[in-house]
Amino acid sequence: MARDISTVGVVGLGTMGAGIAEVLARSGLDVVTVELDEAGVARGRGHLEHSTERALSGGKLDTAGRTALLDRITYSTSLSDLSEVDLVIEAIPESLELKAEVFAELDKITRPEVVFASNTSSLSITEIGVHTARPGKVVGMHFFNPAPVLKLVEIVKTVVTEPDVVAEAVEFAERLGKVPVVIGDRAGFIANALLFGYLNHAVRMYEQRYATREDLDAAMRFGCGYPMGPLALLDLIGLDTANEILDTMYHQSRNRLHAPAPLLKQMITAGLLGRKTGRGFYTYDAPDSPTVVASGAVSTVESVPPRPVARVGVVGTGTMATGIAEVFAKRGLDVVLRVRSLEKAQASVARVKKSLDKAVVKGKLSEEDAALALARITPVTDFEALADVDLVIEAVAEELSVKQAVFAALDEVVRPGAVLATTTSSLPVIECAASTSRPSDVVGLHFFNPAPVMKLVEVVSTIATAPDVVATASAVCAAVGKHAVHCGDRAGFIVNALLFPYLNDAVKMLEAHYAGADDIDTAMKVGCGLPMGPFELLDVVGLDVSLAIQRTLYNEFREEGFAPAPLLEHLVTAGRLGRKTGKGFKDY
């Protein structure tokens, strides 16, 4: 296919089809485009002229290059004009009936050896291909929008697609300057199958008023380095498009997690489709504008005065405890670091000094400020030394019995009115609070590792947490330069509850042999702009840690889709825990 292609047919000249036609023409190919009527042709020509004009003004094309590109594209309203093309790419609306009709017609018009590629993002290539006499020459080539900019192309093979057709589709995508990944014919392919389950989960969290739209979006941007939060991304994609993809995925997978959240349907019915209508989860200053209009709402946190905090206690000796101690000391607060022994105290202070010295070397801190910060940390071995602190943050091992013992000890000695916080990432905060006689003073403060670097802190309120304690936690985060997001006391809070089911889904996809680990990682990095692919991230986090979090989520929510992937269980049993053991999903 890729060796002898000089002319390509493109059926459909919407945003996607016009983008694909531009990509092809940029690569020196002649392109024959077909639309339903002259109005469609005019719209498509307008898309291409606007896009190439932007490329010209941005210095990515010169005038001669733009003219040559546009001259390579011809327009038609008849499929019969595709009789001599070497390849056809279909990019019409997502309707199986319409696509089947087009493919059946193309089958009669084109030469028998011509390959048909569908740009569908969610429909079955198998179901499209059976409407031709050449199902072995039908393949998916799913470009991402905008096609001239985004590099990923998902090559979708069916059980009857000829192997050389798949190989040639990969080669052709590379010829276009794209990054191809190969996947079996399943709902959503790679990127959408993993992305839309995560987006749907975020909608459900918002629907249940578990967290605000701003906090859900900020949590994933600051906690995972995602380029956009889930609700802002849904507004960009379009809620109607998202609902359609989820519905298609659900009808193929029967996975309840793919069933579109009821809120999506309600918003679509009300005409709130996202940026294209000027309103979705957010309100924009005009249709198709990226500028969000401020809501003007005052949160309950801001309306309650916080308790004063000048002196902070930290319990623990690990990376998280010393990182938190450093964060507070650098911001001018006195820190009492409670450790089990003098030996551990020396090691903890040494760890903080090493981190501060690094900051000095990088020019992020002066030597004087580093020395002052270190002097503000007082290591102690007795809980009694925490008697007069205003806030205590527990950062011991992630075991409930250990944390409960710490909270019981703190309850005995810490002054009334002080705030008691836990950094747990997965355990119920209320279980820690129940070990004290003052559950209203207990809150979750989930810092992310490494604490001196990561901006996010999840503030977790239990059903007993007092409003001024939540306000204090929020004010403390602001004082130390962190971005606080608020949520209820449910397994995984925001970030882990959204992140780990997505990672688990990726393992299930690999386990089912639909795609390889490298292709899945590439799809999510190149197609969705994520900083790491799911398997790279699992290996960094640790497969044992990931499995423990996934089990916690499953045990709390009892969602069948949250059950840990058997492959993850088997790798942990085999001692393949990721980077820390040198072997995980990949070998190091």
TrEMBL record:
Residues 188-284, 492-588 form the 3-hydroxyacyl-CoA dehydrogenase C-terminal domain. Coiled coil: none annotated. The keyword Oxidoreductase applies. GO terms for molecular function: (3S)-3-hydroxyacyl-CoA dehydrogenase (NAD+) activity. It comes from Amycolatopsis plumensis. This is 3-hydroxyacyl-CoA dehydrogenase family protein. Residues 7-185, 312-489 form the 3-hydroxyacyl-CoA dehydrogenase NAD binding domain. Belongs to the 3-hydroxyacyl-CoA dehydrogenase family. Pathway: Lipid metabolism; butanoate metabolism. Its EC number is 1.1.1.35. NCBIfam families: PRK07819.1 (NF005875). Keywords: Oxidoreductase. It is an enzyme of class 1 (oxidoreductase). The keyword rRNA-binding does not apply.
